[in-house]
Amino acid sequence: MSISYFGNKILLERICLRLLRANNHQALNHSCRKKYQVCINEMAEPKLIVFDLVSISTSDYTLWPFWVDTHVDPPFRMSSDGKVYDAHKQHVKYYEDVPDILSHLHRSGFQLAIASRTSAVDEASSLTRLFNWDQFFQYRQIYPGSKITHFKKLHSQSGVAYEDMLFFDDEHRNIVDVSSLGVTCMFVPEGVNKAVFQQGMQLFKKNKDKRASQ
Question: pTM for the full model?
Answer without folding.
Answer: 0.73
